[in-house]
Amino acid sequence: MNKLGLLGGMSWESTVSYYQAINRGVNARLGGLHSAPLIISSVDFAHIEQLQHKGEWDKTADILIREAKHLESAGAKAILICTNTMHKVAAEIEQNISIPLIHIADATGRELQRNKVKKVGLLGTRFTMEQTFYTSRIEECFEIEVVTPNTQQQDIVHNIIYEQLCKGVICVESRNAYIEIINALAAEGAEGIILGCTEIALLVQQHHTKIRLYDTTAIHASAAVDFALSPLQGNNGEAILGK
């Protein structure tokens, strides 16, 4: 198997989900006592969060570039950033490593295409919903329209992520607030909803709503399993990543 390098800790709550999903995915395919060969670099999210809210993305990139290089030196054959928001600096990380970066928006876009989705709602941190690094990749690379909540709703989604979910706090009232926002996006024509923050799936699962949910943690982890179990092709693993 190809060894995977995980950039985690943003937050550690969702990194646990990645670890479980990748190992379970490998075991489901290989059986027995098989598990995934993984290397994890788990950063201190308090520092990252402060830099995010100051808009100092270049400094967050420096931190993750350093950790990605460590993972590559330790034998990782591909890198996963175990968070949607920090894909804002994915390009900078890719430029500083010689192994593939499995991009969460690409994995999600391919899943949406397989389901023939043409218009999708997006929930995530305010950075992911407001800025274009995520939405434009889905729209331009996969020709899928992305709709986001209004400003007031974005505040609700963002605050619940940072004040509750990143701390492992699961609140029924917060789930109900998310469901209302999901229903509003569906009313705008969204055929499904991207759970575009890796912690959201801790709060909202498919059985909570009839609207199709796309759990980016599960989708990203599945793409990682594909890579782990596939022979490398080309210097950058292009065949595996579907590029």
Automatic annotation (TrEMBL):
GO molecular function, one term: amino-acid racemase activity
Gene3D superfamilies: 3.40.50.1860
InterPro entries, alphabetized: Asp/Glu/hydantoin_racemase, Asp/Glu_race, Asp/Glu_racemase_AS_1, Asp_race
PROSITE patterns according to UniProt: ASP_GLU_RACEMASE_1
Keywords: Isomerase
Keyword Secreted part of the UniProt annotation: no
NCBIfam families per record: asp_race
Family from the record: Belongs to the aspartate/glutamate racemases family.
Name this protein carries in UniProt: Aspartate/glutamate racemase family protein
